[in-house]
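Task: complex structure prediction.
Instruction: return structure tokens for all chains below.
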Amino acid sequence: MFNEAVFADDIAAPSAAPATSCTGRASKPARVAQQCTTCSMRSACMPQTLNAQDLSRFDSIVSATRIVKRGDSLYRANDSFQSIYAIRAGSFKTVVMHRDGREQVTGFHLAGEVLGLDGVCTERHSSDAIALEDSSVCIIPYELLEALCAESRTLQQQMLRTMSGEIVRESSLMMLLGTMSAEQRVASFLLNVSSRMKARGYSPAEFNLRMTREEMGNFLGMKLETVSRMFSKFQRDGLVHTHGKQIRIVDIDALGRV
Amino acid sequence: MFNEAVFADDIAAPSAAPATSCTGRASKPARVAQQCTTCSMRSACMPQTLNAQDLSRFDSIVSATRIVKRGDSLYRANDSFQSIYAIRAGSFKTVVMHRDGREQVTGFHLAGEVLGLDGVCTERHSSDAIALEDSSVCIIPYELLEALCAESRTLQQQMLRTMSGEIVRESSLMMLLGTMSAEQRVASFLLNVSSRMKARGYSPAEFNLRMTREEMGNFLGMKLETVSRMFSKFQRDGLVHTHGKQIRIVDIDALGRV
DNA sequence: CGGAAGCTTGATGTGGGTCAATCCGTGTGG
DNA sequence: CCACACGGATTGACCCACATCAAGCTTCCG
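Output:
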């Protein structure tokens, strides 16, 4: 059986929720009553705004969890769209691929975030979702979710807000890719990760990146060597301290001014 | 009074819908029964999937149209979010601005497309929407729309699909910005405009761009000089013929192979 | 313990940015 | 109606940020 520590082993300890018992990969794909209520990610996850009654209805459609091993895909581009997924533990990248094989990483996703919304419009996914570490997700069957949205106004609102949030996130990435220098891109990437770690109760100054330099490059629109050089530069300038994937942000303000 | 010809004056004539009578800027901001039913953009617009009953309910919440003159904004970043907008005639760009003043155009939008979905998540817009020519939009008050979504399953589905479509559109732009050469970006831009013109019943091979080279550059992540050079190159190579903003695509297949 | 994957760093090349001159089309005012 | 001014487009010369290529190093994992 696994618990969150497996995924958080080399990340600074969470300041909030201690490792609560998790549902594990018990016999069948784990249907457990009151999953959301007991989930340590609840405050960061989709049903955050639901009242007790809606939450329990939401809970009842989240029929299973699924384990995805590091490097495996949760779904692939062109897979038929059945469900969206809430990350329970671990992390993912989403990737769109060009015909010539070049990859654009469209996002790195942490626990509590939702994956798969790209599939709604065509009933097929348009990206791959790959686990960056052994991870688990809650499976939210879309048809049921959509039916429930029709009944719970709050859930409908939450759903629309989540989608809109994704639109806004992607616009700001377009700005990063379209207007910023390599140095600025890496700096904003670090600040972004930092704030998301903080929001999850981890240290905003010290964390482990789960992706390779190449994956960062494919996200930030640059080559892995450039990512590496920028890390070296920030280290020389005393903004961060890096040791492979371990990052310590030394001067967060200066990083913001880059 | 205006009609669609005002906006389409120097665009190749539509092969489908002829200029139907439009609601104009009559006395008060034009509340007209059955707007959608008679709108020539209906087939390209949001309510495309609705049945008669839902359509009439939808119609009844579309309380007004609004005229936006070329260069004026429909909304600005940080404006409080009240409505989304369906473009009835004309075209817009949406822009996110960096603190240092650099602009990223996040999209060019034609008749039938929806603007303003970025505002749902924070109740404030995160981008500017600027008319590229004198244009008119249908105002769809969001609170009413959302209430109606709770009653019409079809409308709810349509709304979620529209948002998901926007997410997918933006991902593919991220790929363009992150992985493609200047030449490829301009080529895909032209192909994209071409297919959208075609979908609206205009010639896919010959059209007028409504934006400046600089605006294209701010969309494609390059400088206006580079945009211009790419146009010249395509012309030398016999792929397109350009005369200022007028574009004729000569070899669409070759453009796709760039 | 060995090999592969990932990371860093240096040397060199180049796509596109920058700067600047000129051209063109359009709207304006005499 | 023409001249002119101005915003936009084109083109050239030069430069620089980042890509590419290459070598060596570190870390991880079987």
